[in-house]
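2024-03-11 09:14:02 DEBUG pipeline.ingest accepted 1 chain
2024-03-11 09:14:02 DEBUG pipeline.ingest length=373
2024-03-11 09:14:03 DEBUG pipeline.predict start
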Amino acid sequence: MSDNRSMFRRWWRDPVDYRHLVETFESHGALGPFKFMLGAGGLVMLCLAALAPAAQGEFPAHIIQVQGIVEVAVAGVWTLRWWFLPWPREYESLAWIVLFDLDTAVNEFLAADRVVAVLGVVLLTAMGGYVAVFHSPRILALHIGWTVLVSVLLAGLMISGDLPGIDAGRRADIAVGIGVVLVMIVVVGVVLPFMQFSHWLLRVDALSDPLTGLLNRRGLDSHLPALFGGNRRDAAFVATVDLDRFKSVNDTFGHPFGDEVLINAARRLRAAVDSDALIARTGGEEFVIVGRLHEAAAAIGERMRRAIEGMSDLPVTITASVGVAVLDAAQPRSDAHYRELLRSSDSAMYRAKHRGGNAVVAAGEMPDIGGSH
């Protein structure tokens, strides 16, 4: 049960790397069809805007006119934006969600006919699908809360008969409309979170190393913006850890034993660094660690070296070569800088390995740090 709670907490706290998600869809050629479908949704809104005046009942003519103009404008801009401009940045995407939610709710309450009003809830559900794919669970929760609130208020108006145009003779049919609203609440409150959680779980699985549970190389790249983003100015480090002579360990003791060594090494490395550091298994016996720098690079590397050397209950002593590179707080941040740091730490690791292994080399430093050979 505790593992389930931990998993759901991870899902709830996942900020979702919007940019990386968009880049992933783009790399597979999916953004074009998505843009077309979202733009086509604007055409549907245009059609609804044209049909809406027939369902406005007793509302004054000037309100109907203003509503129609606003609807046509929003739907038209929405369509043109998705069809002819690049995919929006995260903040623009959030702004469109807020505008859509507010606009749809206003239209629901201005519609005199309950069936037309319920159509607005359907549109909110459709927007919920977009939110579930591209934004975080917390953003989805806000959208769901708004949808439920609007649905409950709409049901209350139906029950009280306060919607213009609903007379006593039609109240026998109100239950049908309320039932539809309740179904929508179930959809947005159950189906959308389930869809997003499933999407998150599959994404986490694709970004994880199945043996150790650490990130894989793609997962490391996707999580870097949260720790290594351009708005951060903390000093950071990248460390490359490679287990020494691991092939001989596999050849001597077998691959199942080698797998156990890798699992234990992953646990030891996780315990040796800060909880917010990123740890990935990027190769057979190679690990990369990215974190904030709170002490000398050599000290960080030495702690990792000792963590690997200190694995007990093994028939053989396992050691590691460690290379560490540092990004100062004053240096600029970009993917290119991270790649350069990774190359520097990798080069430093090979220098440690060429000196016999079980050693630490900080990029730019010549002396050995670590165990004797």
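2024-03-11 09:14:41 DEBUG pipeline.report Residues 174-206 form the longest helix (33 residues).
2024-03-11 09:14:41 DEBUG pipeline.predict end
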